[in-house]
Amino acid sequence: MWFLNKMLFGSSLALGTMVAASSYSWVGMWMGLEINLLSFIPLISTSKNMYSSESALKYFISQALASTILLMSIIIFSSQALTLMESSMQSELMFDTSLLLKMGAAPLHFWFPEVMEGLNWLNSMILLTWQKIAPMMLLSYSSKPLILLTTVVISCMLVSGIMGQNHLSLRKIMAYSSINHIGWMIAATLFFEIIWMIYFVIYSIITLNIIIMFKKLNLFFMKQLMLSMNYQPMLKIFFILNFLSLGGLPPFLGFFPKWLTIQVMINENFISLALIMIVATLATLYFYMQMTFSTLTLSMNSLIQIENVYSHKFFIMATNLVTLASLILSTLIFNLM
Predict the structure, then answer these.
(1) How far is 73 from 145, CA to CA, in rounded Å?
(2) CB 211 within 8 A of CB 121
(3) Confidence of residue 125 (pLDDT cuts 50, 70, 90)
(4) Is 2 exposed, middle or buried (0-12, 13-18, 19+ CB in 10 A)?
(5) CA-atom Rg of the chain in angstroms
(6) Mean pLDDT of 68-82
(7) By C-alpha distance, which of 227, 238, 235, 247 is closest to 294?
(8) Which pLDDT tens digit goes with each residue over 303-324?
C-alpha cells in the first residue's frame, strides 16, 4: 500500500511539472504548479518522523504564499489584456518573484535549508532537482526584468557562500550549494535557454552521484562522513572528486556548464556580472574543499559498525564515471556539432 501511494503521488508530481512546462496559458501553468505542490507534500510527510511533517508544513506555507502571488499577477495580466493596457512592471516583478520563491532562490531562500533539514535523501534529491524544473521553465518564458534577476543572481552567490560556511549538516550544505547553482542557472536563462538546460542536467547528475553515496552509507552529518570514509578509500576518492566537480573545477564535468555560461556572458558584455559570480562562487568552493580535506585527512576511531559499500562497487563506479570523465566527451560532442 505504501509503495502504491508513493507511485501515485510520484506520477502526479511528474505530471504537474509537465503540465506547467507545456501549458499555453498562465492559468494552466499555475494549475500544473499546484498539482506538483499537492503531490510532493504526501511524499515528504510521514507519521514516523516529526521532522518530515514539520518540513512538509514549512514547504506548504512557502509554496502557498508563492502560488498566491503568482495567481494575483496572472489576474493582473488578464485584466490588463482585457482592457488593452500594456503589462506593468509591477505585475511582471510579482510574477518573477513568485517563481523565485518557489524555486528557493536568494533572497527568498528562507524556507529552503529548513525544509531540506527534515527530509530523507530521496526526497532531498527530488527537492534539489525535479522541483526546480517548472519554476525555471516559467521564468525562461517571462519577460525577465534584468535588474531583478541580476540582483537575485548576486544574492544567490553571496548567500550560499556566507551561509554555507561551518555547517555540520550535509543536507544544509547541499541546500546552500543548490542556491549557488540556481544563481548560475538564472544567469544562463538571461541569454540562452539551452545553456540552463545543459547546466541543470549536469548539476542533477553530479547531485545524484553524491546523494547515492550519502544514502548508501546513511550519512547526514560531517562526523558520520569522517567515520564512514575511514576504511573505504575508493569511496573517499569518488566523494572528493564529485564535490570538486560540483564546485566547478576544470578537469571535471561540473566545469562545463559554468564555462558555457561565462563564455556567453562575456560575449554579451556582462563581464562585471561574470566576474562577481566567479569570485563569489569561490566562497562555496571553500566549504566544498573544507569538507573534502577533512574527509581526506581526519580519521576517527570508533566502535560503530559502518556499512560496507563494496557490494555496490560496480554501481558506484558506473555512476561516477559519467561525472569524472565526461568533460572530454561533452567538449568533443560540442565540437562535432
Answers:
(1) 15
(2) yes
(3) very high
(4) exposed
(5) 20
(6) 87
(7) 227
(8) 444 455 555 566 666 667 666 6
Helices (H), the chain: 2-22, 26-44, 50-82, 89-103, 112-117, 121-128, 130-141, 146-163, 170-189, 193-217, 222-228, 233-247, 255-267, 271-297, 313-336
Query: Can you read off the three cell numbers belonging to residue 287?
Result: 566549504
Question: Is residue 177 a contact partner of residue 160, using CB atoms and an 8 Å limit?
Answer: yes
Neighbours of 95 (CB within 10 A): 25
For residue 221, the SS3 value is strand
DSSP class of residue 337? -
List b or e across 278-300, with b for residues whose CB sees 16 or more CB atoms inside 10 angstroms: eebbebbbebbbebbeebeeeee
Number of Cβ within a 10 Å radius of residue 101:
22
Bridge partners (DSSP) listed for residue 221? 169
- In the three-class reduction of DSSP (H, G, I as helix; E, B as strand; rest coil), residue 169 is classed as strand
Q: What is the pLDDT of residues 173-198, one digit of tens each?
A: 999 999 999 999 999 999 888 999 99
**Chain position carrying cell 507519521:** 47
pLDDT digits over 130-159, tens only? 999 999 999 988 888 889 999 999 999 999
Cell of 65: 504564499
Q: Flag the least confident range among 27-31, 37-41, 233-237, 264-268.
A: 233-237
d(CA 243, CA 179): 15
Report the distance separating Cα 132 and Cα 128, nearest Å. Answer: 7
Phi (first) and psi of residue 199, to 5 degrees: -60, -45
